[in-house]
Amino acid sequence: MNPSERKTLILSPFKAEARLLAGIxxxxxxxxxxxxxFAGGRLATANAAGxxxxxxxxxxxxxxxxxxRVILFGxxxxxxxxxxxxxxxxxxxxxxxxxxxDLPNTTDLPTAAIVTVDQxxxxxxxREQLAxxxxxxxxxxxxxxxxxxxxxxxxxxxxIRFVSDTAEQAFVLPFPPAVKANIGKLRNQILRxxxx
Length: 196
Prior knowledge:
The chain is an alpha/beta fold. The chain is built from six helices and ten strands.
C-alpha cells in the first residue's frame, strides 16, 4: 500500500495485542517486527506500556504518513466484577488523575469509561478504589494520553479495549482464549469502528 493511500493508523501498546487484531484485518501483512499493513491502513506497536512509548510511536507513525483516523487497540483491566475476560469496549470517557477527556463514540461497540494509571492496578482493593473514585469500568496505562495527543490534530480517533484481566483473574500471556474468540465474533463491529 502506498503511504498516501493510508486512511487509518492503529496503535497497540504490545505485539500480543497487535497480533490479535492483525488476524481479522483485511489483507493484513507483517512488514517488520513491529508493524503491519492492511487494506486501508497500518498497525504498529511500541511493545511497551505507558505514555512515553505510546506517544513516541504515535509521533513516529504520523511523521511517516498522513492518516484520517487513529485507533488505540489493546488490553485493559476490569474494575468492576460484572465484566468478563474478552469483552470489547469503545472507551469514550478517559480519565487520568483529576483530568477527564471525552471522545465521541463513532462505533456500535458498547462504551465504557477508562481510567489511565502510571502503574498496574493489580489488587482487588486498588481496582475497587479506582472504580468508585472515577466511576470507571476499565483501567489501563495509555488511553488518556492517546486521547490527549489527538487533540488539535484534526484526526478522528477511538480507543478500543478488550478485558484482559480482572481482580480475580490475573493478567496472563498468551491472552485467554475468550479474548481471541470474542475479537473474532465481533470482527465486523471492530472493522466498522476502525474505518469510522
